[in-house]
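ok trying again, last paste got cut off:
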Amino acid sequence: MSTDYRFEGWMGLDPSAAEGNMKWQCYEPKRWQETDVDMKITHCGICGSDLHTLRSGWKPAIYPCCVGHEIVGYAVQVGSQAEGGIKVGDRVGVGAQSSSCLKPECEECANGLENHCVAMTNTYDDKYANGDKSYGGYADYWRGPSHFVFKIPEQIASEDAAPMLCAGITLYSPLKRNGCGPGKKVGIIGIGGLGHFGLLYAKALGAEKVVAISRKATKKDDALRLGADEYISTDEDPKWAEHHARSVDLLISTISQPNMPLEQYLQLLRVHGTFIQVGAPEDRMPAFYAFALIGKGVKMGGSAIGSPAEIREMLDLTVKKNVKPWINAKPLKEANQAVVDMAANKARYRYVLVNEAHAT
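nice, full thing came through this time. structure:
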């Protein structure tokens, strides 16, 4: 399908792209279908997944690849069979998932669990059912299925909405699904792009107590301003696990390092507590003794982004509770430097690329 705009973006050509060596070039988007939406991109958050993918950390990337899955912009073309009441000119966004099978016989899709469909397509570095590649948001335009495109409420600024579509939902979903709310004591491990959303949404959901857990004390003041009631610095207190044993009902770990002190984290759980891993290390997680689970009857699990319904629910709560992430805006033209700074943990707490040609 011909358009009067071109699909161009920052492309990773090999693993050195993660070191600030992406190249700006054209690419061929998926073939147009009448269920699709074309978006003129104004903002795109930088996610840790982008770095893992650019350097082929989790698996070999499908180079050339254009990363970015926290995308906000304006609909410039809407298919005749598009869902969600989207119209040309609407401000919309897409997160880390851009497709699933949506077949009625699919147990996951039929039950609103599209993010667990075995045929899901990631927003970038993946293949659609027809074999076309998916490309992300470090770019001028994006094309994909409307089922995974969301109208952005007018009360949420585009630069704030973008990181919610991956980082935000990655924390909102496991918090909500595991009972975060009044009477619950919740711990968030790792205070970064993901973790700071954990503090914001745990507080917004009404948790009785929110505990921030990080290695160093340098983020304590920030964590308290973000909504934490207590801060645990694991480097500052050698007996932190002992001093805070049996203190939280729910732990969400955003850590993506394989050498995490997992067995000590489990000590923090109360009887029948739950530990949920959302960070994705490139290596195996640590081994631990079964009694870490058996002794208190605790559960372990994982969580992957969230469903379209959960994303809409999160956006509604964001408006209701006036949730505002801490973002650092960077021009899209500086994407190479931004990914280098992201890898150096300089973000406080989420970098968002601004396509200045489209955001004005």
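cool. Residues 158-177 form the longest helix (20 residues). The mean pLDDT is 97.
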